[in-house]
Amino acid sequence: MSEGINGVTQLMLRAWLAWRLREEPPNSSPGSDPRAPMPVDRVKIGAVQWNATPVKRAQDWLDRVEHLFREAQRAHCHLLVFPEYIALSLLGVIMPEDQSAQVLTDETIRTLLRTLGPVTYRYWYRWMQWMSRQYRMVTVAGSALTVVRHQLVNATVIFNAEGEECLWQPKFHPMAAERRWGVSPGAERMARPYRPWGLTAVVCHDATYFETFRMAEALGARIVAVPIADPEVRYTEGKARRGCFSRVQDVPVIGVVAANTGQLFGVRLTGKAGIYVPAPLSFDGSGVLAESPHPHGEGLITAVISLSQLEAYRRQHKAQFPMPPASFLDALYQFEEPTSG
């Protein structure tokens, strides 16, 4: 592929759209898992580590996603978290194999993402919504690209167990490479967390900023999901812990990382799925309840968290380490009214 999207790829795109966007999810009943209503204290969480390699068929992507939902259901999870940019693996469907494997220029990537990002967003959104309802599971769907007010943004979505959207949150701090590729910072205020758990989500690089977690906590967040796709060739634990793990020690909440790993159009991604708590709440004092054994591959990790234990610790922490009101942080961001695109 040279610059832009050539005529052959455009034809492939139109054919793929004509085929996929007419297809409706199966008209089947919800999963048989009888767990209802959702627990308000002890919540079992599943976090996904995903292999980013582009797929050749959309069905392959869908089968892998559903397999992870099934694994989470077998593990009796109430909440399942997917990683950042999980939808971009779908671009392999409409790009020739020799092109999807090569390193693309920034201009070509910018054209691809602007043109095809919203297409994969629609497919990702609809199937994640359906899976949430089918498997009766609250789902942080990872993230995907869409266009909002003429700006390309990277957004995460939370669906409840009925498949209803209950949170939409764009990434506030795109990385330098994302900015080169045309991804703009989200301008919407941080969404209010999903009740009864106080569940919210922030995307990848946002977790390296203390402001993000403090604003979320001020809105009532108690569980913060962080879908990531970290463009690090060599994974190091120390560098990885600068994000969600460190924020959880500063702002006492539960942190859940879902990681996208592997090769995605010439970009190497590494990372571990993890479930983190303030260090005193873990059995060994490490702050780690569960974590992937390797920084690449695909699978599911799980852990049970107690929101009542968290609240008891938060009261003690607040008395020892009072924090200033988070409202002053709003001035650092140029917020606009939210639009889900």
Q: Describe it for me?
A:
The chain has 341 residues and is α/β, with parallel strands linked by helices. It is built from nine helices and twelve strands. The chain has helices spanning 7-20, 58-74, 97-100, 106-134, 176-180, 210-218, 237-240, 244-250, 307-320; strands at 42-51, 79-81, 138-148, 151-159, 165-170, 199-201, 223-228, 254-264, 267-269, 274-276, 288-291, 299-306. Strands 1, 2, 3, 4, 5, 6, 7, 8, 9, 10, 11 and 12 form a twelve-stranded mixed β-sheet that branches. Helix 2 (58-74) packs across helix 4 (106-134). The chain is globular, with a radius of gyration of 19 Å. The two termini are 29 Å apart. The model is unreliable at 1-5 (pLDDT under 50).
Please give a handful of descriptors for the protein shown.
single chain; 341 residues; alpha/beta; twelve-stranded mixed sheet; 12 strands; globular; disordered N terminus
